[in-house]
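Final report, closing paragraph on structural work. Over the funding period we assembled a curated collection of sequence-structure pairs, and we close with a single example.
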Amino acid sequence: MGIKAVEKLRCPSSVAAAARSGLKLWMLRAVTTVLLWTSVVQFTAVGNTWTWGPRVLKGWPSCRTAREAAAVTTTRLSTPEPVVEKAALPPKRIYQNNGYLMVSCNGGLNQMRAAICDMVAIARSLNVTLIVPELDKTSFWNDPSEFQDIFDVEHFIISLRDEVRILRELPPRVKRRVELGKFYSVPPVSWSDISYYHKKILPAIQKYKVLHLNRTDARLANNGLPLEIQRLRCRVNYSALKFTSQIEVLGRRVIRMLRQNGPFLVIHLRYEMDMLAFSGCTQGCTPKETEELTRMRYAYPWWKEKVINSFVKRKDGLCPLTPEEVAIVLRALDIDKSMQIYIAAGEIYGGKRRMASLTLAYPNVVRKETLLEPSDLMFFQNHSSQMAALDYLVSLESDIFVPTYDGNMAKVVEGHRRYLGFKKTIMLDRKLIVELVDQYTSGSLRWDEFASLIKAVHSNRMGSAATRAAIPDRPKEEDYFYANPQECLQGPNMLQTL
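Its predicted structure, as stored:
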C-alpha cells in the first residue's frame, strides 16, 4: 500500500478527533452562555430595585423607548417609596379611676345596643373603668352570643380610649374580690338623669370598688342631659359599635345583591310568634293559632300582661300591622309594584298563608334566607342577635325603611338613618291606618279617598328633621333619644360635630 493510501486511511480518525474536540468546545460555550444569561437575568432583576449596579445592566435593551426609560428612572429617583401609615389612635384619657363598672344587658340586639351607649356615657361621667358589657343569654331568644361575637371589641375599646378606659375583663386582683362576693349589684332606676348616678351609684362604686348594674335598658333619660353626654351616646352608637367583619362582609354582600336589581325597600315586619304572643294581637289568626299564642304568653312568667283584648288593642294602634295591612298601605303610598321588598324579620307567623297578600301585590319579596345559601348563614343559626345585625345593616342602606311596629329596632334604625342624612323612613301611624283600612275593606271608603288620606297622614312622617318631644315627669311617653338624637344631627338648627 502506498503513502497516499495510508494517509487516506488515517484521515477519518483525525476528522473524528477534531469533531469531538469541536463538540466539547461547543458544549462548553453553550453551558457558559446559559450561566451568563442566568446571571444577567438575576442581576437585571436586582438592578431594577437598586439604583446602583453595572452599567451593562442599566442599559439592557427593553421594550421602552429611551425617553420612557429616562422618565421611569427619574420617577424612581424622585418618588419615595409609599409609606403605609397606621390610623392615628385617639390619645388616652387620663383620669383618677373611681372603680370598675360591670354591666349585664337585657333584651334583644337593639335594646342592648342602646343600653351599651348609655353605659359608656355613665362610665365616662363617673370616671370609672368599664368592663366590656355582658350580653343577655336568658331572654326569649336564648342567644349565646358574646359581645365579641357581634361587635368588633378591639375597635370598641380603642376608639373610645380618649373618653373612658374599657377592659375586656377585670384585672386579676379585682377579679378575685368579685369571686369572693366583694362587689355591689343593683338595677338602676329607669329614665334617670346623670345626677342620679353621681348621687346614688358613684358612692357605691367608691365604697365597693366594683359595681354591677344588672339591668341596663332605658336607664338614662332622653332629655335634660349635658350636651357632651348626648353626643357621646351618638359617638358610641354610630362609630364605636361596629359589627364584626364576618357580619359586615355578609351584610355588604346582601346589599350588593339587592342593588344589582335597583332600589329596594326594607319592611321590618314584626309579625313573628313571640311578638304576637307578647302583645296579644291576633288579627287574622285562626282559633287554633290564637290558642297557641295565648299558651305561649302564659308560659313566660316575666310577660306580665296575660288577659288581652286583641280587638281593643288593635284599635288603639298598639298591635304590629299584619302583612295584609302592610300590602294595602304600600299600594296607597304609591310604592311601585316592581320594587324589591326585603323582609327584615324572623319567621313570619302563619307563613305563606299570611304573606300571600303582600307577595301578590309585590312579587319581588325577598329575605336573607332566599338571597343567601344555607352555608352562608350556617354560623348565624340559633344566634338571633347576629341574624338581626344582618337585617340592621341592610335596613340602614335601604332606599326606604318601613317598620310596622315601634319596637327597639324600628327606633334605633330610624335614628341611625336620621344621622346618615335623614334617609327616608316611613313611620306608620298604626292607629289611623287600622281605622282607615277597616273603613275601606267594609266598603264605606273608596280607594282614592283611602289612598289620599294615607298619603296626607304620612307626608310629615318620613324621617325628616324634627324636634324631639319632651314630656316632663313622663319620660316613657317622650320621643326616644335613639329614634331622634337631635343633638348629633345635621339640619335646620342642628349641628353635627362628632
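The chain is about 50% helix and 5% strand. The CA atoms of residues 160 and 240 lie 7 Å apart. We thank the funder for supporting this effort.
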